[in-house]
Amino acid sequence: MTPGNHMQRHFVQELEAVKTNLIKMGSFAEEAIAQSIRALQERNAELAREIIAQDERINAMEIAIDDAIVDLLALQQPVASDLRFILAAMKINNDLERIGDHAVNIAESALQYAGSPPVKPFADLPKMALVTKEMLRDSIDAFIHADSSKARAVLLTDDTIDDLNRAIVGELVALIRTQPAVLEQALDLIRVSRNLERVADLSTNIAEEVVFVAEAQIVKHHAEEKPSTHP
Amino acid sequence: MERHFERGLEELKETLVRMGGMVDVQLALACRALFDGDAGRAREVMAGDREIDTLDSLIDRKCMDIFALAQPVAVDLRLLMSALAINSQLERIGDIAVNVAERVEPLVPYREFLLGTRLAEMADIARIMVRDSLDSFIRGDAELASRVLVSDDVVDKMDGALFRSLVSSMKEQHELIERLADHATNIAEDVIFIVEARQVKHNAGEEIRR
Question: Helices B39-70 and A80-114 meet at what angle, rounded to 10?
Fold first, then answer.
């Protein structure tokens, strides 16, 4: 075997390792979001505290992936499409770490919320969490499989999230108006909704990277003119 | 090869500084629009975001070119990766200026109330933090980077206090509730996000520790 082939194989292996770790980190972040919503719904303070404690793991994963990417860039000196892919992996790594932070924010709101009586039955918030989780999973999936049509579908789903966020916040503000006593609890839920909306935005960022890599063109500033939308 | 990298990096730093300056202006204009209740200026901020997006794409491309042509290793490689990360942070901070601008109009009736809070002070500190963290990267100044970390705690505390005071004001004046419940907490959270500028400080610190 020529040295070139050997290098090539080594590169492919290391690239696979980065992909595997990103998938792992993605499902970890996804799980953190799901569990934080569960903690909120079930008023489970212990679970909420667990999620807050586990953020260290996501942070450690981010650093490990970053280091692997540096090694990959330094030792293999990739060019063109490999380079684009690796740089996208770097950004996605950072987006996933932030998603972990949002799970912590939700868990903190869950802790607060569990401290007083619930203000209303859950309806749209779990639904929003479900759609957000799917967006996150699909965006990672699209990245791993270089599936730009799946990525584009994620970009479209973001509108659903914006609608849900608007509906949830609207309903809670109406509730506060009629029952000012529930102000704090309603604000906790508004914060949860906003955090989910940010997670959806970050998933959208990941999807934009995928389209960028796949089509080697910058869609991110055209696909969605507005930045993260708020009601 | 070496010279090529040096030149590329210098150019990159210059462009990052230009981007940092533009983001800072956007933040300043957005905050002024908010506290003056100036919807026209807010619209200028929204329109100005396009330029930042263009610069973001340009910096990304510059980084890619340097990677491809100079094939940097070790410290140079880390530096380049930090530049990329900082670029995307700045772009997102630009988006936040737009988010603040979007809320200017609905908040016009609550201007007096906003002026009574410490939001303006928070926004000033946040802007200084963005500037200092970028400076610390450009100059490799570890001490400045660690000062940014200290300010982060200060702003976190201000956010908590602001939120609590908002809640109590809303309890006293129910008519404030309707809009403030949503918009004001959003703005406070945005300021916090600006302040986090996490990757900037993370990478700047890392660079300096070497």
Answer: 130
pLDDT at B72: 84
Q: What is the DSSP letter of B117?
A: S
Residues in chain A: 231
Using CA atoms, how far apart are residues A83 and A137, in angstroms rounded to an integer?
23
Angle between helices B174-196 and B74-102 (to 10 degrees): 170
Given pLDDT bands bounded at 50, 70 and 90, which one contains residue B199? very low
Alpha-carbon gap, residue B178 to A170, rounded angstroms: 9
Nearest residue, CB atoms, B88 vs list A91, A177, A184: A91
Domains in chain B, number: 1
Count Cβ neighbours within 10 Å for each residue of B179-189 and write b for 16 or more, e otherwise.
Answer: bbbbbbbbbbb
Which chain B residues are within 8 Å of A70, Cβ to Cβ? 77-78, 81
Res B6: pLDDT: 87
CA of A43 to nearest chain B CA: how many angstroms apart? 22
The closest alpha carbon to A212, from A101, A67, A98, A90, belongs to: A90
Q: Which of B74, B182, B186 sits opposite A74 (nearest CB)?
A: B74
In CATH, what is the architecture of A3-223? Answer: Up-down Bundle (1.20)
- Which amino acid type is present at position A223? A
Tokens 């975001």: give the residue.
B49
User: pTM score, two decimals?
Assistant: 0.84
**Total residue length of chain B:** 210
Instruction: List CB contacts of B29: < 8 A, sequence separation 6 or more.
Output: B41, B44, B45, B48, B97, B101
d(CA B68, CA A87): 12
Give contacts of A183 with chain B, Cβ < 8 Å.
Answer: 167, 170-171, 177, 181
The residue range of the domain holding B45 is: 2-209
Q: Decide: B135 and B207 in contact? Cβ < 8 Å.
A: no
> Where residue B55 sits, what CATH number does that domain have?
1.20.58.220
Beta carbons of A138 and A155 less than 8 angstroms apart: no
**pLDDT tens profile B54-102:** 999 999 889 988 888 888 888 888 888 889 888 988 998 998 899 899 9
Q: Which two tokens stand for residue A159?
A: 């509108």
ipTM of the complex: 0.76
